[in-house]
Amino acid sequence: MIRAGFFFTLLTLSSIPCYAYDFVKNSPPERWIERYLPEDLPKLDTPAYFQDLDKARDLAFHGRYKAALIAIRSIKNVPAAQTATLRATSLYALGRYTEALTALNDSTDPATQVLRAQILAQSGNLDQARVLLKTHLAKFPESIPAHFYSAQFSDTLGDMTAAQREYAWFNDDQHRFLDHWKGSPDRPPFDNAENAVLIARALDRLANLNGSYKDNHQLHEDILNMMVHAYDVTDRGYWPAHTAAARYFLAHDQTKEAGQELLAALRANPNDAETLDLLGTIALSEFDFDKADKVISALRDTDPNSFDADLLECRSLLKQRRPQDAEGLARRVIAARPKDLEAMGLLAGSLMLQLRDDEAHQILKQVESIDPGNASAYYEVADQLDSMRQYPRAAAMYKIAIERAPWWTEAQNALGLLYTQSGQEDQAHAVLDAAHAVDPYNLRTTNYLRLLDQMATFAKSETAHFRVVYNATVDPIIPEYFGEYLETIYPQVTSTFHCEPPEKTIIEVFPTHDAFSVRTTGNPWIGTVGASTGPVIAIVSPRKGPNTMGPFNWSQVLHHEFTHTVTLAATDNRIAHWMTEGLAVQQENAPIPWDWVPMLYNSVKNKSLFPLDQLTWSFIRPKRPIDRQLAYAESYWICTYIEQTWNHDAILKMLQGFKDGKSQDQVFLDSLGKSTTDFFTDFQKWTEAEVATWGYDEATSKKYAELRAQGEAMIKARQYPEAVAIWEQIAQIRPVDPLPHQRLAGLYLTKEVNEPRKAADHLVALSKVDLKDNRYAKRVARIYRDIGDLPNAMSYARRAVYVNPYDPDAHDLFAELCEKTNDTKDLAREKRVIPILAKWMEQNRKQSAISDQ
Questions:
Q1: Which residues of 697-711 are buried (b: 16+ CB within 10 A; e: fewer)?
Q2: Tell me: the pLDDT tens digits for 71-81?
Q3: C-alpha angle 325/327/332, rounded to 5°?
Q4: Is residue 46 within 8 Å of residue 542, measured between CB atoms?
Q5: Beta bridge partner(s), residue 143
Q6: Alpha-carbon distances, residue 32 vs 28, 350, 470 (angstroms)
Q7: Checking DSSP bridges between strand 505-510 and strand 536-540, what pairing results, if any?
Q8: DSSP letter string over 584-610?
Q9: What value, to the nearest 5°, has the Cα angle with vertex 814 and ends 794 and 507?
Q10: Peptide bond connecting 611 to the previous residue in cis, omega within 30 degrees of 0
Q11: pLDDT tens-digit profile of 697-729?
Q12: Fewest CB within a 10 Å sphere: which of 222, 315, 481, 547?
């Protein structure tokens, strides 16, 4: 039922990019794992006393397989039977299976039958491999490797009765290996590191199948310690123990620890297929396609026809949303290994993503004929659908996998996390509780359960189309504003994209950034303040405090995120990531941020904008500090260009194309009449025209510098009217620069100039771009109030409250203007909020005083 080589699965929610609002200076998170794939293998230092046969063994053990074969040829006076296993091992690693099996014909060692079985299994002949091991065990019933691989091959084929029987051998009354190890970890069979590792792996799998980890922390520690003892005490050079430990850590979502173990293994053998495959799987979980490609290349450098490389590349293509290309790779593996359930699951998943469900179900029927009651292929399909946010379809497949393999915590974890993403917290808690009971040591599951327990205490506020969930103790004023504001934008956003979400959108407001990050990724780090998974929008509380991101304009963020909710609903979650981001930025109705201007200008002039096929991954896996910001800006530009050139109907047609499951290339061709290549060429010309008026060319920059020097000198000399004329020139030649607006706002407010309305115009320009500081908005509101423009004063006083809802001064100003304009509804709310806010601030002062003592 479950492929033995796929005991672990990285939880899918970590690999689903949230559609996030990011105003942070973006630096990619610290890379916890470095690349250790040397192009030239370092020379091995072998002891002087090594004989030729010893040197050949050492070369093979450390991944120098071709060198080992050459060394074997030079060995003198040693019968072929003594080198047969070594020759076969090297040929096997190189993918030369037929030659490897032929080499074993010269061996007289009975243990070579286990190696023969491994080669047969890898080449797709699992049934033959099992028969061979059965014969071998009849003669050598205490063979630890034979029992382990017999169990693993049965596991791979889905014969769980046979698999459990073989795994149980390691813990039956006659053996009780774990008890023996705890009593004498250095006595046979544990004095052999290979035996110790195979025993630990078998006991781990048995514990998973039997649910033995439940409420048994010591078992977890003992099995892990058995692996660590193998490489730390028994044989410090036995690198496969590090690979086994890495696989074990990954099964419990302890990725950093797994990475450290993989590095240790790769330093000893940079060419081991299993180790590289695990490294590539982790790279894909982090959307690091470059690293995954290097791993795939490394696998094929050793074995040009590597099935591991094909399957890893297939997964990579699926993550890159290229199911058509992935389909070809899956079919290639199946052609060579017709009973490969992993490849069949990936093929079914790729067909599902192409909306070829009938063909996918035919593949699943073939799986059933090989493995009645299969769970793994259904999990593979669910995982692919989940990654594309096809929540109902994915949930149905996860449920089949769970029903068939109730002990398989990966499927339960994945379904639980899917429920959190789709806003079904009660179902999520039930499923994750069940998974946690079986495996209490999965970090992401534990994080989510803690968060769900916390969220169960949150208050709720509902409107016609939204449910706002928040912590009433630390964020008491949230319900006064969020729901009402969201209802005001609902008609505009939904009518723009001709779509209404089928259910109420849930807005979850988290009191800390760590809680928000766990909610969106399962881990306590993400450099954003808001994220949408479609039905759910998560946002950090917009206030200053321990472990928050400080005040920010929550209304603009929610407008952005709700646009994601609508465009995802309009396309059944199939919209290209860059497009939903670009449309969301458009809907904010805000000017381009000042820090985007030089970045965009330089990117246009240096022709370094992202090609369309790389744009989405620049959000998800940025390589430079500016990449994510540039991706937002470029996506916004592309959507703007399409609107201006083809009108909004073209946008709607593109959304329909994505909903119909068409590829990006086909969507552009059908909707705009252009290939993506031709579109991008024309788009680049449009961007050149855009930046031409920004004043960053060499001649204008020189003039800007001269005028700026004059303007600053005049301000210093208090020649304010003259300075106004200079700074107005600067504003004309460089209209997308904050400095002239700042200077002119100050100059127009001086007594010598005294033109407050003109000052307000420049402060408005500054206020519209500033997401985190409400000082400009408050100043604008007061200027408009003083000159009698109460409608504009109200607008900017409201903005000041939205940018910093925990600023008492902003609330007082807004209340004053509500009274002046006879806005009884808003005034009543401010009269409720101001005392609540005062009480909240007093409680925080007391708490802070207690903490300081």
A1: eeeeeebbeebbebb
A2: 998 888 888 87
A3: 105
A4: no
A5: none
A6: 11, 30, 33
A7: parallel
A8: HHHHT--PPPTTHHHHHHHHHHTT-PP
A9: 95
A10: no
A11: 999 999 999 999 999 999 999 999 999 999 999
A12: 547
pLDDT tens profile 42-74? 677 777 778 888 899 999 999 999 999 999 988
How far, in Å, CA of 161 to CA of 173, rounded?
19
Residue 462 forms beta bridges with which residues? 467
C-alpha R_g of the chain: 32
List strand residue ranges (DSSP E) for 8-65, in order: 19-21
Lowest model confidence (mean pLDDT) among 219-228, 384-393, 461-470:
384-393
804 within 8 A of 551, measured Cβ to Cβ: yes
- Residue 540 belongs to what H/E stretch? strand 536-540
β-pair type (459-462, 505-510):
unpaired
Residue 837's region, left for phi above 0, alpha for psi from -120 to 50, else beta, is alpha
- Is the Cβ–Cβ distance between 184 and 168 less than 8 Å? no
Q: Which amino acid is at 317?
A: L
pTM (two decimals): 0.79
Q: How far apart are CA 534 and CA 760, in angstroms?
A: 39
Candidates 687, 749, 747, 751; CA nearest to 711 is: 747
Residue 477 has which token pair? 């004023």
DSSP 8-state class, residue 697: S
pLDDT given for residue 400 in this prediction? 95
Cβ atoms 400, 359 nearer than 8 A: no
Q: How far apart are CA 19 and CA 619, in angstroms?
A: 9
Distances (CA, A) of 507 to 74, 486, 530, 555, 561: 71, 10, 10, 12, 10
Which residue(s) pair with 469 in the sheet? 460, 508
Q: What is the mean pLDDT of residues 687-695?
A: 95
The C-alpha atoms of residue 349 and residue 383 are separated, in whole angstroms, by 8
The burial of 359, by beta-carbon neighbours within 10 Å (0-12 exposed, 13-18 middle, 19 or more buried), is given as: middle
Nearest Cα to Cα of residue 641 among 591, 600, 689, 701: 689
Tokens of 315: 């997964």
How far apart are the C-alpha atoms of 296 and 65, rounded to whole Å? 18
Query: What residue has token string 């449920």?
Result: 399
Structure tokens at 804: 């910093």
φ and ψ of 20, to 5 deg: -110, 155
The pLDDT assigned to 21 comes to 57
Query: What are the residues whose beta carbons fall under 8 Å from the beta carbon of 306, sequence distance 6 or more?
Result: 95, 273, 299, 300
- Cα separation, 531 vs 517, in Å, equals 9
Q: Residue 112 contacts by C-beta under 8 Å, 6 or more apart in sequence?
A: 84, 85, 88, 104
pLDDT (tens digit per residue) in 78-111: 888 788 999 999 999 999 999 999 999 877 788 8
- The continuous run of DSSP H or E covering 147 comes out as helix 144-157
- DSSP-assigned beta bridge partners for residue 540: 510
- For residue 728, the tally of other CB atoms under 10 A from its CB is 16
Mean pLDDT of the chain: 89
> Taking residues 349-375, what's their average pLDDT?
93
- DSSP assignment letter at 44: P
Mean pLDDT of all residues in 523-536: 71
DSSP label at residue 230:
I
pLDDT, one tens digit per residue, over 221-274 is: 999 999 999 999 999 999 999 999 999 998 877 888 999 999 999 999 999 999
d(CA 378, CA 435) in angstroms, rounded, equals 18
